[in-house]
Amino acid sequence: MTQRDMAGYINVTPVTLRNWRKNKPELYEIVMKGFAFNEMIELNNKISTATPIEELKYYTGYLQEKYYGTDGYDVDYYKLNIAEKGIVKLMFKHDNFENKEHFYVELFNSDNVNLFKEKSLLNKRGITKYIGLDKGKYFIKISTYSASTKVNNKEYSLGYTLTKTDNIELENNDTMKKATSIIDGKYITGHYQTKATGSTRADKDYYSYMAKEGKYNLIFEHEIFENNDSLTIKIFDENMKQAYIFYGKAKNIKEQFELQLKDGKYYIEFQNIYHSSGQEYKFGLLKQ
């Protein structure tokens, strides 16, 4: 941090800092020690120095008011070590601050792929996210959008739990190549996410299935979507040719679609058109 950065942080001019150094060395020393301590405790501003967190524990943090040039706002990274695949429940909490500013809460895998990006409005007291993850290392990023935002210096708390289970969607399954395999006759639980990029930021979930020729029922269950949200369900054959398309209804909690499949590999694509993030769904592909 430069002298100019330090001066901006404590709302004085660089000239004032230089004068303190010359004429008030004790005050200058106190200020410098304060900056040194702040840097010592605030080291989790990149993935390589992320703070490790454990399941069933809450961690408290703050976004600091930093003035590091044009890229001058703080971020906090936390590292999760997921020992077994399952559904992670991520809880991010803060007080109601009575304004419309917000935190950003993001999750990345070990390849630095963004799995979701959510706003936590200050007047909403936080968010709770569910996501299916395979075992491995993951990183949570807490940030805002401006060095001058009212989010800065506001306390937040962060924690997570893991429910170990096999029959789940595993993020990042947003392409056919990364499709989650379906176990014959088993129901799968998935969750829609809000992505950091894309024209709509809507999530796509892909699943793969080895079919035997015959008739199938695709049973789809979901929560009632907010804001009249709807979704599309597409079935592709192994040549990536679309075989079926269905439209899920916002108000229908359980729906059933009939399929006629041949021997071979198929892909099922679920897309939430209006990205109702965090909503859970279940489906099964059952042979008649």
Structure report:
With 288 residues, the protein is mainly beta. It folds into 3 domains: 3-41, no CATH class; 47-164, Jelly Rolls (Sandwich); 176-287, Jelly Rolls (Sandwich), CATH 2.60.120. The protein is 12% helix and 43% strand. The chain contains 3 helices and 18 strands. It has helices at residues 3-9, 14-23, 25-41; strands at 51-52, 59-61, 76-82, 86-94, 102-109, 114-121, 126-133, 136-143, 156-164, 180-181, 188-191, 204-211, 214-222, 231-237, 242-248, 254-261, 264-272, 280-287. Strands 1-3-8-5-6 form a 5-stranded mixed beta sheet, with no helix packed on it. A 5-stranded mixed beta sheet has the order 10-12-17-14-15, with no helix packed on it. The protein is elongated. The protein starts with a helix and ends with a strand. Mean pLDDT is 84; it is low at 67-71.
In percent terms, what proportion of residues is strand? 35-45%
The value of Rg in angstroms is: 24 Å
Average predicted confidence as pLDDT:
84
| CATH architectural arrangement of the largest domain | Sandwich
Structural class by helix and strand composition: mainly beta
What is the third-level CATH name, the topology of the largest domain? Jelly Rolls
Low-confidence stretches: 67-71
Order of helices and strands: HHHEEEEEEEEEEEEEEEEEE
Percentage of residues assigned to helices: 10-25%
Shape: elongated
The count of strands amounts to 18
Q: Under the CATH scheme, which class of the largest domain?
A: Mainly Beta
Main sheet makeup: 5 strands, mixed
> How are the strands ordered across the major sheet?
1-3-8-5-6
Distance between the termini: 67 Å
Number of helices: 3
Tally of structural domains: 3
